[in-house]
Amino acid sequence: MFSKSKKVVGTVLAAVMIASAFAGCAPSGDSSSVASGSESAAPSATEIKAITIDEAMKDADVALGEEGKDSEVTLKVWAPSDAVDMFTKQCKAFTDNFKDRKISIEVVAQGEADAASALMNDPDAAADVFGFASDHASKLYPDKYVAKVRLNYAAAIKETNLQGAIDVATYKTETDDQPYMYSYPETGDNGYVMFYNKSLISAEEMGSMESIMKVCNDKDKNLVINMNNGFYSCIVPLTGEGTYSLDESRHQLLNYDYAKIGPVATAFSKLLANDSHYVNDDVDKVLASALKNETALAGVVGTWKTKAIKNALGDNYAACKLPTINVDGTDTQIKSMYGYKLVGINSKSKFPMTSQTLAYYLTSEACQKERITELGWGPSISTLVDSDAVKNDVALSAMYEQQKYSVPQTGLAGSFWDPTGAFGGYIVNKDKDLSDAGIKKAYDNMVENITAQ
Amino acid sequence: MIKSYKLRRNISNGIIYAILTILSIIWLLPLVWIVMTSFRGEQQVYINYIIPKTWTFDNYVRLFTDTGIMNYPKWFMNTLIVSICTCVISTISVLMVSYTFSRLRFKSRKAIMNVGMILGMFPGFMTMIAVYYLLKAMNLTRSLVALIIVYSAAAALGYFISKGFFDTVPRALDEAATIDGATKNQIFWKIILPMSKPIVVYTVLTSFIAPWTDFILARIIMGDAIDQYTMAVGLWKMVDKDFIDRFFLQFCAGAVLVAIPITALFLKMQKFYVEGVTGGAVKG
Questions:
Q1: Is A38 on the interface with B (CB under 8 A)?
Q2: Which helix (DSSP H) or strand (DSSP E) does residue A341 occupy?
Q3: What is the CATH number of domain A47-189+340-391?
């Protein structure tokens, strides 16, 4: 008796379930028009007029076009979490400036190291404006995950920023007739220096690896350098005058010469492998604690750790460029890799004009200056690099000093890092074969793995 | 050769106790360490001694008050909501599917069971990218609803254990109930379930713990929506290189608190494990 009505109910329920599964599939606005704005920067035959940030901020029509007049502009910005407050403040200043336009900006925490992969995984869910490290440029530019910088802005940026920063921001894709800027230079300090405890070791003693290790042994303290990480261990090939680049299909090319790199590797190996006061550990996690405990007296780490190390060392906080190392009787300056942080515009942003101007504002002199003092971020604008704010900052001045002995972190394929880290870890591991033949073999492995296609 | 039985017993007991003591120290040390660290006053990440010199409750206080970047209370609630919803949905679906396979006879029952078993053997994260894009097409990513759907959708595939349990409940009970006029549905709710408390408890626990501790799917689905994070993802974020110096001790406090709901659930449900013995149900 009931069976028929039950069947009907069951069928209806099943239909409802299927329908609800598709309920979210409604078309989501006009996604076709999304990319058009990124091409607003198309080259024109006439001379391109540079627009400074001040000019842009004064004229909403120039800066934002029609965006925000009728409907609200909603933007998402990615910033590293310790900088979220700062970016929120600066974004608020931006929206306050354009009071007659409806703009709302949400700043979301997302580290620069993961920003590129997060964007590539799902550009629709990614931020409109985001910071990333310059070594990710080779992932983002060629397939145009980021939009070109508006040409009027690019013209002004080129006049004020460090040449190195402009170089890593510029790229020529297959469809471009000439190189264009694909991102806004944000910082000029993405590298690493030697941090040390000045109550335990003097600035002169920090001059060479040999004297540092001597003090370490005398005082029973450690030196921490992460040679397992390619970002740090590339000091070995770079000190041996190695350089790198990418070929047209984005494979890694290495200009390495073992006759020069071999002796450097041997020097590092001889000095560090058998010394129990050298610690090969993840500096990002241990260095600040080790300096605070005074188990370590010095260590190499990126400037993003400046604040933590400053807190750990207090009055004994000091930083300097990387030391020299004795290679076959000559003191050779250790060379490092040096990067920049850039701000990119998601090419799928629905509000390209506002995004462009916001990125321009966030990387402007006023905002960069604020970030030097509040966050200790090194600027990419040349006049700020020479300012007192930078000179008075211990880590930043060490950073710009080391920049003279560094190779830009650009032209790197993803295959570079792990083999370089493995080689660095090998030469300081006393359990490995550290004879000339052993190091040569590890070196050959590294080169083969990096350049393998 | 040791002749005395007593001496032999003492020696063998001594050895066994020594081994057990060593094992329990190995097992307990990490737990003791994280509890101690969560009450540690020294601010740095690593200290070169085990027992802290200063003790404080501050890490717990800051965990719940310093919520500007790391909003632990919100994550806790998110995880609780997801876990409870998932727990209810998947417990009901697992038990119903098990009952169906155990008691009802229909065409292709065997075939469906086999397909279910094979599908159930693939780990959920194998399809995570596909799941992500499907959710994205439905505009559901970065939401707790998505997590509940993902965790409970395929739960019924884990039917074997409870089906095995239902198989041991005598069919004579069903038959007796049928004679009394009960439908299959009534038999399930009124006869089988009350007698299957241990397996219900087991199903509740496993389906609560799975979302409570899952990391991979939550990480993929939530992306940058830090307010929607579950605890596993949030705690991982706390020891990211950008934050570890600031949040390490809160992380330890948070890791200790994670255990509380699971422990509470266990204590509450423990007694049912021994109750509800089905054998005694068929009385004359």
A1: no
A2: strand A336-345
A3: 3.40.190.10
Among candidates B44, B223, B241 on the partner chain, residue whose Cβ is nearest the Cβ of A284: B241
Instruction: Give yes or no on whether A47-189+340-391 and A190-338+398-451 have one common fold.
Output: yes
CB-CB neighbours of A449 under 10 Å: 16
Of B256, B211, B245, B218, the C-alpha closest to B234 is B218
Collapse the DSSP code of B59 into the 3-class scheme (helix H, G, I; strand E, B; otherwise coil) and give the result.
helix
Q: At A5, which amino acid appears?
A: S
CA distance A34 to A144: 14
With cut-offs at 50, 70 and 90, classify the pLDDT of residue B275. low
B175/B157 Cα distance (integer angstroms): 27
Q: Each residue of B119-149: pLDDT tens digit?
A: 888 887 788 888 998 998 998 888 999 999 9
Nearest to B136 by CA among B126, B124, B149: B149
> Can you tell me which residue has the tokens 């078993």?
B117
- Backbone CA torsion sign across B232, A375, A307, B67: negative
Nearest to B226 among A108, A124, A288 (CB): A108
Neighbours of B154 (CB within 10 A): 16
- Asked if A449 contacts A415 with a C-beta cutoff of 8 angstroms, the reply is yes
| Bridge partner residues of A170 (DSSP) | A181
* Cβ-based interface (< 8 Å): residues of B facing A: 43-48, 68-69, 132, 136-142, 223-226, 239-246
Say if residues A138 and A412 touch (Cβ distance below 8 Å).
yes
Q: For A252-265, how does the pLDDT look when each residue is reduced to its tens digit (9 = 90+)?
A: 999 999 999 999 99
Facing A28 at nearest CB: one of B44, B139, B224: B139
Spatial CA neighbour of B131 closest among B152, B155, B150: B150
DSSP-H helix ranges across A190-234: 209-219, 230-233
**Rounded CA gap, A257 and A237, in Å?**
9
Q: Both tokens of residue A414?
A: 């993803």
- Domain residue limits, chain A: 47-189+340-391, 190-338+398-451
Pairwise CA distance, residues A17 & B154, whole Å:
15
A221: left (phi over 0), alpha (psi -120 to 50) or beta: beta
Amino acid identity of residue A435, one-letter, is S
Residue A364: C-alpha distances to residues A53, A359, A367, B238 (Å): 7, 8, 6, 31
Helix (H) or strand (E) holding A352: helix A352-362
User: What's the rounded mean pLDDT across residues A131-148?
Assistant: 90
Q: How many residues does chain A have?
A: 453
Instruction: Name the A residues in 311-330 with CB < 8 Å from any B CB.
Output: 311-312
Q: DSSP for A296-313? A: EEEEEEEGGGHHHHHHHH
Share the mean pLDDT of chain B: 88
CA distance A89 to A84: 9
SS3 A439: helix
Alpha carbon of A29: minimum distance to chain B alpha carbons (Å): 12
Please tell me whether residue A33 adopts helix, strand or coil conformation.
helix
Tokens of A272: 């560090």
pTM: 0.79
Q: Give the mean model confidence (pLDDT) for residues A281-292.
A: 91
Which of A407, A374, A209, A412 is CA-nearest to residue A300?
A: A209
Does A295 contact chain B (CB < 8 Å)?
Answer: yes
Fold for the domain defined by A190-338+398-451: D-Maltodextrin-Binding Protein; domain 2 (3.40.190)
Cα B133–B138–B144 angle (5° rounding)? 90
Residue that is written with structure tokens 């360490």 in the block: B33
Tell whether A286 is within 8 A of chain B (Cβ).
yes
| Alpha-carbon gap: B181 to the closest alpha carbon of chain A (Å) | 14
Chain B: nearest CA to A291, how far in angstroms?
A: 9
**Which tokens hold the place of A28?**
């989501």
* Tokens 């060593």 found at: B22
